[in-house]
UniProtKB/TrEMBL annotation:
Protein's name in the database: Pyrroloquinoline quinone biosynthesis peptide chaperone PqqD
Keyword Transmembrane helix recorded: no
Gene label: pqqD
Keywords: PQQ biosynthesis
InterPro entries per the UniProt record, alphabetical: PQQD, PqqD_bac, PqqD_sf
């Protein structure tokens, strides 16, 4: 896998979908291998992984909603999700 950096552009892999479960009042990540219930931080990051915006832009958007957002933490979340084949980089 390529080294991730702030200029990396993440997107959900083909077949992966983030949706909101009204019954459980939480986000659910659906992918061919199963279902994952991401924590609120991961859900916020995933919602911005559109294949257009890079990590710097995602961090900027998250800073408008949350205090203390660091690009390094976003890269860490994306790296773990990449290991699970949920996100990829363009």
């Amino acid at each position: 896998m390529a080294t991730l950096e702030t200029g990396s552009v993440p997107r959900l892999r083909r077949g992966v979908r983030l949706s909101y479960d009204q019954t459980r009042e939480t986000h659910v990540l659906l992918f061919p291998e199963g279902v994952l219930v991401p924590n609120p931080t991961a859900a916020a990051v995933l919602s911005l992984c559109d294949g257009v915006e890079d990590v710097t832009a995602i961090a900027s958007a998250l800073r408008e909603r949350y205090a203390g957002v660091r690009e390094e933490e976003i890269l860490e979340v994306l790296s773990r999700l990449g290991d699970r084949r949920i996100v990829e980089w363009t």
